[in-house]
Design brief:
CATH topology of chain A: Arp2/3 complex 21 kDa subunit ARPC3
Number of strands of chain A: 0
Oligomer: heterodimer
Structural class of chain B: mainly alpha
Structural class of chain A: mainly alpha
Order of helices and strands of chain A: HHHHHHHH
Shape of chain B: flat
Largest sheet of chain B: 2 strands, antiparallel
Radius of gyration of chain A: 18 Å
Number of domains of chain B: 2
Largest sheet of chain A: none
Number of strands of chain B: 2
CATH architecture of chain A: Orthogonal Bundle
Helix content of chain A: over 70%
Distance between the termini of chain B: 38 Å
Distance between the termini of chain A: 38 Å
Strand order of the largest sheet of chain B: 1-2
Strand content of chain B: under 5%
Chain lengths: ~220, ~250
């Protein structure tokens, strides 16, 4: 869920940018550390950013029949780690603004916060929790991907409600309004994205075990022969 | 991507990105400074007219680029205009228009429109490689710039891979039903992930073979009359901001 360019008041635009900045800085720090440890991964995250951009241009079959596009936040968080997703997400969102006029420069901070910080960290946390609860691999992936999508849209609703509180009901009424309106498109999208992520991870585990081992994902999943 | 075509072929391609960036920035500042809906709309018209007549972006292409975000803006504005009542009315849940809020919504929507034209001005006149070099001047961290450079280079390679794979899959009826298309898409994405891995290793080998051991280095492009164009951008940008501040 992107927030349109110029849609947020100036104080909110600056506030969300300030809120996202430490996460991006920390992400860059972890990327630098990672490159020092594994120099062969130097190009990996840049190519991963292109992958995320291309992924967001794909049309995904949705359960209700309407088509929507995958966000790839959970997939990225599981494959490349949640902290690396903040700078990657920043690059992707900037490119979407400049190449597709989707999202914007002034709302970059707010969009980074919902899509490149809340989404990936939620996905990684849920994935870890599900694993600790000994849920099957597919279920853990599905929960991580779909719940991360839902949390992303809840964050966007909260950001919009915070900027545009209801004249009578205030923040709560406005938040309920946005959450309800967006639920129509976002809940089917979350389910589709969850299913797609499961299919992707299963295909990867079946056909590309060596690559997953190099990405350090194999410790988190059983590779089927 | 249509914005790319214009970015490389417009009349102002050879003008310093600093000047174009400054002008886009002042457009955004003016959009936020605008006191009324009318002023913001005026800014939107002026900035888009400059992109079309000044930079020579064809009108048809401009319209095609601006339509998707405009639809998105329409949806966002409509969602602001509707107010949902939970439980206070007899029927439990009711929809009505938030009429008292209309002036504020109109202001947000027009500001958004003006900002959009400023963003499009930059996107349609300046290729991303120029924007990256502009960011390099602004002392953006090298790691982030490298991410952007790599992303920009690989973007088109991966889009082509997606296009080819999808053609092959469709030729084998891979997108006929919902469950089959989900499986095809899953296969497509997972093969793409493997490509990400393999291509990044190949890129790394290529870079190491050429002795690259750190950040990417690029030669700065030379632009004609940089000083003059920057001064023009500052003057015209200030005029727009001043107009936005004065007009009510």
């Amino acid at each position: 869920m992107h927030i349109m360019e110029g849609f947020l008041p100036v104080s909110h635009a600056i506030g969300w940018s300030a809120a996202s900045a430490p996460f991006v800085a920390y992400g860059l720090y972890t990327i630098n550390k990672r490159i020092k440890e594994k120099p062969e991964q130097r190009m990996l995250l840049g190519v991963a950013a292109a992958f995320t951009f291309v992924l967001s241009a794909l049309k995904m079959p949705s359960v209700t029949g309407s088509s929507s596009h995958p966000t790839g936040t959970a997939l990225g968080a599981i494959l490349f780690g949640p902290s690396a997703m903040a700078p990657i997400g920043m690059v992707v969102l900037l490119f979407q603004a400049l190449l597709l006029a989707h999202g914007g420069l002034t709302t970059l901070g707010a969009n980074i916060f919902s899509m490149a910080i809340v989404g990936p960290f939620a996905a990684a946390a849920i994935f870890r929790l599900a694993k600790a609860a000994k849920l099957p691999f597919g279920t853990s992936i599905f929960l991580a991907a779909s719940l991360a999508d839902l949390l992303t849209y809840v964050t966007t609703s909260a950001q919009l409600a915070f900027a545009f509180p209801d004249p009578i009901g205030g923040f709560a009424a406005s938040f309920a309004k946005f959450a309800t309106l967006f639920a129509i498109t976002q809940i089917p999208l979350a389910i589709s994205e969850g299913l797609l992520t499961v299919v992707v991870m299963n295909a990867l585990a079946r056909f590309n075990a060596p690559e997953l081992q190099d990405l350090n994902v194999t410790t988190t999943l059983e590779v089927k022969a | 991507m249509l914005t790319e075509q214009s970015a490389y072929s417009n009349r102002w391609r050879r003008i310093s990105p600093v000047a174009k960036g400054l002008f886009a920035l002042s457009g955004i500042i003016a959009a936020f400074a605008a006191g009324s809906t009318r002023t913001a709309l005026l800014i939107a018209i002026v900035v888009s007219a400059i992109s079309i007549f000044g930079a020579g972006v064809p009108l048809i292409r401009y319209l095609r680029v601006v339509t998707p975000p405009l639809l998105f803006l329409l949806v966002s504005t409509l969602s602001l205009m509707i107010s949902i009542d939970f439980g206070t009315s007899a029927s439990g849940l009711s929809l009505h228009l938030a009429e008292s809020d209309f002036p504020r919504i109109a202001q947000a929507a027009s500001r958004s429109l003006a900002c959009l034209t400023a963003l499009l001005f930059l996107a349609l006149t300046t290729p991303l490689s120029d924007i990256i070099s502009l960011l390099r001047r602004c002392k953006v961290p090298e790691t982030l710039l490298d991410l952007m450079t790599l992303c920009y280079r690989t973007l088109f390679v991966l889009s082509e891979a997606v296009h080819d794979t999808m053609t092959a899959q469709s030729a084998r009826l891979g997108y006929t039903t919902l469950s089959i298309s989900m499986r095809s898409l899953g296969g497509l994405v997972s093969s793409l992930i493997v490509q990400v891995w393999q291509r990044s290793l190949a890129l790394n080998n290529a870079a190491e073979a050429r002795g690259n051991d750190g950040a990417f280095r690029f030669l700065e492009n030379n632009y004609d009359n940089t000083r003059i164009s920057i001064s023009i951008a500052i003057v015209s940008g200030s005029i727009i901001v001043a107009l936005a501040a004065i007009l009510t």
